[in-house]
Amino acid sequence: MIELKSAEEVDRMAVTGQFVGELLAELSGVAAVGVNLMDLEHHARRRIAERGAESCYWDYAPSFGRGPFRNVLCLSVNDAVLHGLPHDYVLRDGDLLSIDMAVGIDGWVADSAVSVIVGTPDPEDLKLIEATEVALEAGIAAARPGGRLGDVSAAIGEVAHSYGYRVNGEFGGHGIGRTMHEAPHVANDGRPRRGLKLHPGLTIAIEPWFCRSTDRIRFDADGWTIRSADGSRTAHSEHTVAVTESGPRVLTRRPTHGVTPAEPTGKPATTS
Fold first, then answer.
1. Is 235:128 a contact under the CB 8 Å cutoff?
2. pLDDT of residue 211
3. CA 8 to CA 13: how far, in whole Å?
4. What is the pLDDT of residues 222-256, one digit of tens each?
5. Is 155 helix (H, G, I), strand (E, B) or coil?
6. Gene3D superfamilies, per this entry (predicted)?
7. What is the pLDDT of residues 65-97, one digit of tens each?
8. Continuous segment of H or E residues that includes residue 39
9. CB-CB contact of 57 with 108 (8 Å)
10. Which of 3.30.70.270, 3.40.50.20, 3.90.230.10, 3.90.1150.200 would CATH assign to domain 7-253?
11. Residues marked as binding?
């Protein structure tokens, strides 16, 4: 069942979205050469607790994972793209890190992800991240009342193909609101003018993710971490978006300035 949210409920989701966006921006600044993934995880745990928020990941236990997840961040490095289980790993120069988080505040959830390069960027990694970001913006632009869900999926897929990347159909975006995963599924490729009609009050997480040279994936032995099947690098971008009468409203937009990283060390992370 798909629940359309009232304008007031979307505003309440936007409160959560602002916190998620600010914390992702902060974590992107903390991520640096020499920083352990578990430092990022514990940093996020502190911030979430201080805000009085609740992680949607902590008790997350889908059929494919060895759950519950028992962490508040998905931290995916290099060829890992989704559901990266935080572990004892020290970031190295040139690593491509994807940070994904979802939290609830006062019963309303927001979900977002960003990919950054730690230290010295590889141009091909910058291109890959750029592709996910451009695809995300294209998907957002298509999330307009009167359109179809296929318009969103087709916009994402068109960008992926224009950059020369293939699209995996197993994991994509999703409805969101009172819980992290609601209907409908939002595929990262599709046909325009097909599928669910978009009405004001629909809230969805749009999340393009691409691998550099494959559309196939494999799971780590931990049951969670999803990697490109051929070991090529990956990237992931995501926002929570509301369809409104006046068009799409991004609820998790990250601040472009004004976020002070907490005690970063080494070289700062960079994005495209």
1. yes
2. 98
3. 9
4. 999 999 999 999 999 999 999 999 999 999 999 98
5. helix
6. Creatinase/methionine aminopeptidase superfamily
7. 888 999 999 999 999 999 999 999 999 999 999
8. helix 37-51
9. no
10. 3.90.230.10
11. 83, 100, 111, 174, 181, 207, 238
Provide the mean pLDDT of the chain. 94
CA gap 67, 59 in Å, rounded: 7
Binding residue positions for substrate: 83, 181
| Residues pairing with 76 in the sheet | 98
| Residue 25 binned pLDDT confidence (cut-offs 50, 70, 90) | very high
Q: pTM for the complete prediction?
A: 0.93
CB atoms within 10 A of CB 29: 16
CA-to-CA distance for 66 and 129, rounded, in angstroms? Answer: 29
Average pLDDT value for residue range 137-162: 98
pLDDT at 269: 54
User: Are residues 82 and 230 in contact, defined by beta-carbon separation less than 8 angstroms?
Assistant: no
Q: Are the C-beta atoms of residues 227 and 81 closer than 8 Å to each other?
A: yes
Q: If you ran DSSP here, which 8-state letter would residue 120 be given?
A: S
Domain ranges of the chain: 7-253
How far apart CA 65 and CA 167 sit, in angstroms, is 22
Query: How is residue 141 written in tokens?
Result: 């632009």
Known binding-site residues for a divalent metal cation equal 100, 111, 174, 207, 238
Angle, vertex CA 88, rays to CA 87 and CA 92, nearest 5: 110
